[in-house]
Amino acid sequence: MKSITIKGSKREIVGKVATKALRNAGKVPCVLYGGEKPVHFSAEELEFRHLIYTPNVYTATIELEGGDKFNAIVQDIQFHPVTDKIIHIDFYQLFDDKAVSLNIPVKLEGSAPGVINGGVLRFPNRRLRVKAIPGNLPDFINIDISKLKIGDKVFVESLMTDEYEILHPEDMVVVQVRTARAAIVVDEEEEGEEGEEGEEGATAEGEDAPATEGEA
């Protein structure tokens, strides 16, 4: 999984007054959990633009003044109720041998024949909760929909791998092609045409048969 570097400074003083002063200076107070003890730090709000304001998911490399460096994931974000500015972020420290859980986006590839034929694509689960060691966390989960016909579904079970665990029931539907009213009408018309062709063929064969017997 790709990582975004966040450069910040340790917070020697914590509390409401110090936190307010940081926010007034355009900085975001943060806390890193998961290690031996919490690490309090702050960073410029612009440092988080590529980490937070994106549909993708990234890990964070936190570089603090003094040389301290941590790998982490975002655990919780607090936004201002009026301005939507970031007012606080909690991070969780990553370790190479310790599995973590993260919501990973699902990416669809290809064009579904069922949709081309009038079906409707339903994509109810655009993110899946995945558990893995940091080195095995995927940037996204790919699903090839190029063979999905009307009525076909993709279940969690078919997405399982040895690299990570998907924390959802195996029978949960991730994406499917449902029947649309237009598709039903088309199918009925096609069936009607096939039926008419079958009746015409039967009549033609019936007319040829007596002629053959007469010749014999």
UniProtKB/TrEMBL annotation:
Domain of life: Bacteria
A GO BP annotation: translation
Domain Large ribosomal subunit protein bL25 beta: 100-180
Keyword Secreted recorded: no
Keywords tagged on the record: Ribonucleoprotein, Ribosomal protein, RNA-binding, rRNA-binding
GO CC terms in record: cytosolic large ribosomal subunit
SUPFAM superfamilies: Ribosomal protein L25-like (SSF50715)
Matches recorded under Pfam families: Ribosomal_L25p (PF01386), Ribosomal_TL5_C (PF14693)
Domain Large ribosomal subunit protein bL25 L25: 6-91
Record region (Disordered): 187-216
Xref: InterPro entries: Rbsml_bL25/Gln-tRNA_synth_N, Ribosomal_bL25/Gln-tRNA_synth, Ribosomal_bL25_b-dom, Ribosomal_bL25_C, Ribosomal_bL25_long, Ribosomal_L25_dom, Ribosomal_uL5_bac-type
GO MF term list: 5S rRNA binding; structural constituent of ribosome
Purpose of the protein: This is one of the proteins that binds to the 5S RNA in the ribosome where it forms part of the central protuberance.
Subunit record text: Part of the 50S ribosomal subunit; part of the 5S rRNA/L5/L18/L25 subcomplex. Contacts the 5S rRNA. Binds to the 5S rRNA independently of L5 and L18.
HAMAP family in alphabetical order: Ribosomal_bL25_CTC
Family under the similarity heading: Belongs to the bacterial ribosomal protein bL25 family. CTC subfamily.
Name the UniProt record assigns to this protein: Large ribosomal subunit protein bL25
The species this protein was found in: Aureibaculum algae
Gene that produces this protein: rplY
